[in-house]
UniProtKB/TrEMBL annotation:
Residues of the ABC transmembrane type-1 domain: 81-364
Membrane topology, as annotated: Multi-pass membrane protein
Protein name: ATP-binding cassette subfamily B protein/ATP-binding cassette subfamily C protein
Biased composition (Low complexity): 1-19
GO cellular component annotations of the record: plasma membrane
Recorded GO MF terms: ABC-type transporter activity; ATP binding; ATP hydrolysis activity; ATPase-coupled lipid transmembrane transporter activity
Keyword entries, A-Z: ATP-binding, Membrane, Nucleotide-binding, Transmembrane, Transmembrane helix
Domain ABC transporter: 398-651
Organism: Nocardiopsis metallicus
Predominant location category: membrane
Region (Disordered) location: 1-24
Subcellular location: Cell membrane
Transmembrane segments: 75-94, 114-133, 198-216
Length: 667
């Protein structure tokens, strides 16, 4: 993305100082001040009628396939009954022409009215049939559309949860994801509905055009001419709405984020503690007002387009009736035929208008559904390789060789050519099974990124991560991660029972569950819960329970200890800052359990922590600085390297905090 435009921060409602240092960063999006379509030039370019006309057959094919996979029965019913509606419309039009011809071919008399009764009955039957088909078609469409949407949502969510983790570090990916979340899936169902409406309208138009051709051939091209302005208006309005949606994507995504901050339970306490309500409300108002302004401009332009289209269509329609009147005056057509022509024109114009409106809606839905298909295509490029070999059952050593990893960037970033610093640069380390390995370094040194490479969540852009010679880039990701346990620094508070929070997707094993809880100290947490392991850990729902931060951390640790398959322990356990919320006693117990776990199971344990006293007993300590390995060895070996080495410097800083200050005798 482009760099944020400069803006003047706004003081909070409680601020009384005019000092700029007291002002705060605006919570709304600075990008709102950039050109509205700047970030989406490619999408706008592909939204033209010519481009969409070329893509429409493919889009309709995808939509129909999606509909058929959702409910073949409702697809057949929708198609059949909509064709029935069109056919019944044609039937009614022919019957109307017959009635008018019977009544007005000569001066109306009772005998002529009686002669017209069969045609009237025929007309009534046509109208009843049309109404029945319309009702049944409506029912089938009402059943089909939500089924298509659910199928599209299932595939969308499946793609979103299977793409590589690095995709979620890309702002452009989030924009695309958000647009599909808002409209893409829904428009799959709408596209099917509009396509069937087009089919219905075309059947009616063909029938009306046949009647008009029989009455006088010149009426058909004149009728089609009346639709050109309406076609233009519908197309321009659809394109404008889509461009508007693109323009507000980032602002709307930011608005949703602010909304969640304002109404989510997890942020409610801090919002109140730091009196953020006014700032959040101000940010929400700014974002909402910006979006409102875009919609207001859209409304004005839509009215202008509609007025121009309706005016031109009305003028052309007037021309049609002038021609019809001239044909009547010249006695080219009789009065009965002229009356039938008026009815046919109105029916044809209405059917053609609906068909064109449906075509415009197909075009508009196609724009959004195209986003959905493009997202699925992009997701497939971000999926791990298919049909890969399963991961090895275990390893004797993990060898990381010359690994380099840089987080993805969004289009437009670093447009001045600034080189982005790699999170890891040429890292080479060796981990052996049964070892406890500690990753040490200051914030931003690359510890967590290296752990994610070891766990298979990221793949290095250069270099390799191998289990006994097997490059992890060439193995199935799910198979690999089933053999790895991760105790994450920012672990998820799953709104599930305590049992499910620990067992997750691993097979249920009561014995292993109890052992994992004891190792993590979570057994004491479970003992305090009202329903034990069956307690729902979400206060937002009835009978829910909210653990403290330390209790959540013990449950997350138990989750890591529990991880395994078929009763076997995983060969690799990664713990990233696992004791930040624990008290000293619980922390000591956890680290003791961690080392015992490595020795008991033979697993390799990778530990990331800033508390260096806890890594002293590690078999190997790897020190990172700005994405590079600057030292590795045991505690004693690293301490012997000298006072100015990063590890010893960090150790002394922490150790000094626990040493008593020199006391001066003042007596």
């Amino acid at each position: 993305m482009t760099s944020a435009a400069q803006h003047t921060p706004t003081p909070t409602a409680t601020s009384t100082s005019a000092d700029p240092a007291d002002e705060h960063e605006d919570l709304s999006l600075p990008e709102l001040k950039t050109a509205r379509y700047f970030h989406f030039q490619e999408q706008v370019a592909t939204a033209s009628w010519a481009t969409m006309a070329r893509r429409m057959p493919s889009l309709l094919r995808h939509a129909i396939v999606l509909a058929w996979q959702s409910s073949p029965r409702d697809v057949l019913a929708t198609t059949t009954f909509n064709i029935g509606v069109g056919a019944a419309t044609a039937w009614a039009l022919v019957a109307t022409t017959s009635v008018l011809d019977q009544l007005f071919s000569t001066v109306p008399t009772p005998d002529r009215v009686m002669a017209a009764l069969p045609a009237l009955v025929w007309l009534a039957a046509a109208l009843v049939t049309r109404g029945a088909c319309s009702a049944l078609a409506g029912r089938a469409q009402a059943r089909l559309e939500p089924q298509v949407v659910v199928t599209a949502e299932e595939r969308f969510m499946g793609d979103a949860t299977h793409v590589e983790l690095a995709a979620f570090d890309d702002s452009d990916f989030h924009d695309h994801l958000f647009r599909c979340y808002l409209r893409g899936c829904d428009e799959g169902g709408a596209l099917v509905r509009h396509a069937t409406d087009v089919l219905t309208g075309l059947v009616s138009v063909v029938a009306a055009a046949g009647v008009l051709t029989a009455l006088h051939p010149v009426l058909v091209p004149l009728l089609l001419l009346t639709m050109v302005p309406q076609w233009w208006g519908s197309a321009a309005a659809s394109r404008l709405r889509y461009r508007t949606m693109l323009a507000i994507t980032q602002g709307r995504r930011r608005k949703h984020l602010v909304e969640r901050l304002m109404i989510d339970r997890t942020t409610a306490a801090e919002v109140r503690s730091y009196t953020m309500a006014d700032r959040l409300t101000s940010a929400f108002s700014k974002l909402a007002r910006h979006e409102l302004a875009v919609h207001m401009r859209l409304a004005t332009r839509m009215v202008t387009i509609r007025l121009a289209g309706d005016t031109a269509s009305g003028l052309v329609m007037g021309l049609v009736f002038v021609v019809l009147g001239w044909l009547l005056v010249q006695e080219i057509v009789p009065i009965a035929t002229a009356g039938a022509a008026v009815v046919a024109i109105q029916v044809a114009r209405g059917a053609l208008s609906r068909a064109l409106s449906s075509v415009a809606q197909v075009y508009e839905s196609g724009l959004y559904f195209s986003d959905y298909l493009n997202f699925r295509q992009e997701a497939r490029t971000r999926l791990p390789g298919q049909d890969l070999a399963p991961a090895p059952a275990g390893f004797d050593q993990i060898l990381v060789e010359n690994a380099t990893f840089t987080y993805p960037q969004s289009a437009g970033e670093d447009e001045e050519g600034t080189q982005r610093r790699a999170a890891l640069q040429g890292v080479s380390v060796t981990l052996r099974r049964g070892q406890t390995v500690a990753l040490v370094g200051e914030n931003g040194s690359g510890k967590t990124t290296l752990a994610k490479l070891l766990s298979g969540l990221y793949t290095p852009q250069q270099g390799t991560v191998c289990w006994d010679g097997t490059d992890l880039a060439g193995v199935d990701g799910d198979s690999l991660r089933s053999k790895i346990a991760v105790i994450a620094q920012d672990h998820t508070h799953w709104p599930l029972t305590a049992r499910s929070n620990v067992t997750m997707s691993s097979p249920r094993d009561t014995g292993r569950l109890e052992r994992a809880a004891q190792a993590a100290g979570a057994d004491t947490v479970i003992a305090t819960m009202p329903a034990g392991w069956d307690t729902l850990l979400d206060k937002q729902f009835a009978h829910g329970y909210e653990p403290s931060g330390g209790q959540w951390q013990r449950l997350a640790a138990a989750r890591g200890f529990y991880r395994g398959d078929d009763g076997t322990e995983v060969p690799l356990l990664i713990a990233d800052e696992p004791t930040a919320a624990l008290d000293a006693r619980a922390e000591h117990r956890f680290f003791s359990s961690l080392h015992a776990h490595a020795h008991r199971t033979g697993s390799a344990v990778v530990l990331i922590t800033h508390r260096l006293a806890s890594v002293r007993m590690a078999d190997l300590i790897i020190v990172l600085d700005q994405g590079r390995v600057v030292g590795q060895g045991t505690h004693e070996e690293l301490m012997a390297m000298g006072d100015q080495t990063p590890y010893r410097e960090l150790w002394n800083l922490q150790a000094n905090a626990y040493r008593p200050s020199d006391l001066t005798d003042t007596t």
